[in-house]
Amino acid sequence: MKRFTLSTLAGAMLAAISSASMASSHREAPFITENPKVDATDFYLFRSYEPNREDYVTLIANYNPLQDAYGGPNYFSLSPEALYEIHVDNNGDAVEDVSFQFKFTKALGNAGAGISLDINGKDMAVPLKNIGPVTSTDDSALNFKESYSLTMVDGDRRTGNKTPVLNDSDGSTSFAKPLDNIGDKTFSQQSYDQYANSFIYDVNLSSCPEGAQDGRVFVGQRKESFAVNLGEIFDLVNTNPVGPVDGESNQLADKNITTFALEVPIACLGEDNDVIAAWTSASLPQVRVLDPNPSFTQPLVSGGAWTQVSRLGMPLVNEVVIGLPDKNRFNASEPKDDAQFADYVTNPTLPTLLQVLFGVKAPTVENRPDLVAAFLTGFTGVNANGSVAEMQRLNTAIAPTIKAEQNNLGVAAGDNAGFPNGRRPGDDTVDAALRVSMGLLCHLPLDLCTPEQAESGTLAYTDGVLQNAAQFDDSFPYLTTPISGATSDVSNN
Questions:
Q1: Angstrom distance (rounded) from CA 254 to CA 233
Q2: pLDDT tens digits, residue range 179-211?
Q3: What span is annotated as the signal peptide, if there is one (predicted)?
Q4: pTM
């Protein structure tokens, strides 16, 4: 196979693509729909493009899909029973070399006693999560608080060397999570931006090499970062897949998400190899028993080994590649064992479904080496790291592109810092997945397959929804302010 540089691949892809991206993982498997708090929806991996932060890598994992901003009274907390993790492979064996583990706790307000009111001489607990405005310096009206610990693991996620990540401000191992954006009245004394930004922490990564031990972390609600014509796509592609690229509304535009954002020095993730690979996962205890007399802190009893229930690396794999009988198993698997799913990549069903529905021609490529490169190996000379596994790969030697100059087609448009060299929030990945599935790579000089084997491979498949860098911030954590659950009604103030 020929070796292609990023610039060579970019030129070839730009000639064939007019726009790109179908990536996300909302409710992608039957079992995970029963556990939305541990459902990973999107994963991003990119060199930080915030000014003066180019020596860092940002890893963002989103969980808890399809949050309606008005979803009170309990809103969208995370699970204290779960272990949320981000994994990095830095030597190409599809096994984690570094993991970051997030573990959550919850507590009632008023120092854990809960806020109560004197009602007719009786001390009565209030039913709400807050009873007045909340600010970054005054949370006395807050009746529910979440915090988390962050642990860095070198080696195997369960048996490797574990080091607590420290809060730079006070040396503690605890970090607070902001209250969801309940509404403008709750945050009437301080904008939600100001409030949430106070939960961005500088951290000390003491197990990283000297000079590469500083980082940042944020966990909290953000505006949904993914854009897709969701309902129509899964209604037998009830839209025109070769219609206008930006012709449809984003059906996730009114949703929020819970974001885990972590910024780490490049040197901390692997000094010896430019290409790293990463993915996110969530696990629950193997045994869970419902408590017949549940309390606020203990609605169930759990124990046993951590059992993985969610996994996400490259976008859209479980949605449109893995068959329905194996979706739960894929979520429970690790990249090193992905040979068991290889037939789904080498014999994909989506192209045939599009052929039946729209009369386009599915590729006739045997064993689909083009999809193997896209989903399992990366591209030789670009971001391949020697492994054959479903992970997101990033060549950290490629300089980041500032927000104003990013192209949502990434490498396809000559923006080598974008998808599929990692993934940034503004990279449009839905159209790209559709086009690659239909054989786009067969029309590029990659020696993977021939144009004749993908007759419809150059059509501009699209879900019709725009995604670009302008929709996001140019500083950590990049994803934007969550939608307010309610606007202020001044007549009631």
A1: 18
A2: 999 999 999 999 999 999 999 999 999 999 999
A3: 1-23
A4: 0.91
